[in-house]
Every structure is written in C-alpha cells, then in structure tokens.
Amino acid sequence: MLYLKLFYTFFKIGLFGFGGGYGMLSLIQFEVVERNGWLTVEEFTNVVAISQATPGPVGINCATYVGYSATHSVIGSFLATFAVVLPSFILMLIVAKMIVKFKENRYFSAIFSTLRYVVVGLIAAAALMLMTEETFGKNCADIVSWAIFAVSFISVKSLKINPITVIVFAGIFGVLYY
Predict the structure, then answer these.
(1) Do 26 and 100 sit in the same domain of this protein?
(2) Same domain? 130 vs 157
(3) pTM reported for the whole predicted model
(4) Cys-Cys link to 136, which of 54, 64, 96, 145 (CB 3.0-4.6 A)?
C-alpha cells in the first residue's frame, strides 16, 4: 500500500510540477512533510541540499531520496523516481504533437505564455518554503546564514559567477565555520 501511495504522490507531483525541480519543491514539501509525514522539515531541507549538490535534476533527486526514506528500499527509490518522470514524458509526447498541429493558433500561444508566470510563482514559493528555522536559525535570525544567502545571490546574479563555484566556496566556508 505504501508503494502505491508513493507512486501516486510522485506521479501527482510530476503532473503538476511545472517549471522543473525547483518548481516542484513546494509540492514535494507539502506532500512529503505535511500530508504524508515521510520526512520532517529539517530532513526535507537536507534532502534539498543533497539534491542540489548531486548530479541531476533537483526534483528527480528529491524523489529518489524520499522514495528510499519512506520505504527503506531501492524499489521505493526507483518507484518515486519513475513516477515523478512519467507524467513529463507523457505530456511531452502530447505537447510535441500539439505544437506541430496548433503552432499558429493564438489560444494555444496564450496558454504557453501564461504558464511562464505560473512557473515563476512556483519557484518563488519553493524559495520561501526553504526559508525555515532549520535553514536560517530560530526566527530566521542567523546572520551568518543570511550573509551566505546574500553573498551567493549577488555572486550568481550580479557578478555572474558560476553557481558551481559558489556552491564549492559555500561548502568550504560551511566546513570551516560550522
């Protein structure tokens, strides 16, 4: 029964998680932490950090880790990963056929234009959900965490430093500081 629930949960996340892994994070957190209780908020924050540090898409890495944590088996990992990818695969096949058929239709173009705003909203929701006590200290007052956040944001956005370089330096700082 747990495997079926895991498959259903991640299939639903894959189906409604527009915008890729970061867009899925708020859905994953709601389903995994709040609705099913498979992970705590702190464990979920760690999952996101590990998923960002390991190769591959964040949403898929999260699904793999949660699948294993929920079932304590590789089968759970595989099932959650397969379930989160399956809707995208099916939808891409359908969309590819539709784009060829309706590419000149103004309503079809309007739908795709609107989805861009939905994706930005989902990514912003994911960022806000990660601003927790576990990440930024009690009452979000840990000045060092905020400083790391600010320096990382400015480094990538304004200074155009490669995100991998920022992650490596933040990791080194974390080892030295904490």
Answers:
(1) yes
(2) no
(3) 0.58
(4) 145
